[in-house]
Amino acid sequence: MAKELVVPLAPNVWRIPLVRDLVNGFILRDDDGQVTLVDMGVKSSGPKVLAALGAIGSAPSDVTRQVLTHAHPDHAGGAAHVARETGRGFTVHHDDAAYAAEGSSPPRDRSFLLGRLFERFSRPGRDFEPLAVEREMTDGEVLPVAGGLRVVHTPGHSPGHVSLLHEESRTLITGDAIFNVVGLRWPVKAFCTDFRMTQRTAHVLGELDYDLAAFTHGAELRDRPREAIRRFLGSHRTD
């Protein structure tokens, strides 16, 4: 296995470092070889996702599901490239599905100057290449992925932002609810649709059970991750 292309997290679960550890995707593989991809990084990341498949001995034809935690260009930018190779559409939360289909980011938080600037320059089909949405997921459902992948709706960063809990390996994928870049931190405020909502809904991550926390921005936490996330959330309480 080419270690630089994938980072093993648990049996049949890998992180794909798409821009070093700063932007990550994930692979989950069923015992029968079916593969699920989660997040495809920036526009240039598509080939890295495909190379990561090869590194674990899988092929694009093994991919049966492609999931986006949300419709932002650093997660969906490489998605169209991957889709052309796998022939698969995308599973996205209902509240982000229309944005993924038109290739646009959801609204930014206009209470911040930078958010208003991003909003001004966002155009349908210009943020990332439009995607085929083949399934809309909902909060609490368990996707039939590698023993069960639970959808945890954590809106705020985007309306349909989700975190994902792989129940068999007890691995949490936080999405952009929380970053782990130079320590645990909130996502950039101006990138959120509603930053205050992001803070409120992330608290559900402290109530879940998991042994490893994986982040779409930053390296994973393997040592008592639930306790670390609960400490972070406890020190950043909202009204």
Automatic annotation (TrEMBL):
**Origin, by domain of life?**
Bacteria
Q: Name it.
A: Metallo-beta-lactamase domain-containing protein
Name the InterPro entries for this protein. Metallo-B-lactamas (IPR001279), NDM-1-like (IPR050855), RibonucZ/Hydroxyglut_hydro (IPR036866)
- Domain spans labelled Metallo-beta-lactamase: 22-217
The UniProt entry, under CDD domains, shows: yflN-like_MBL-fold (cd07721)
Q: Where is the signal peptide?
A: none
* The organism's taxonomic lineage, starting at the top: Bacteria, Bacillati, Actinomycetota, Actinomycetes, Micrococcales
Source species: Terrabacter carboxydivorans
Database matches in Gene3D superfamilies: Ribonuclease Z/Hydroxyacylglutathione hydrolase-like
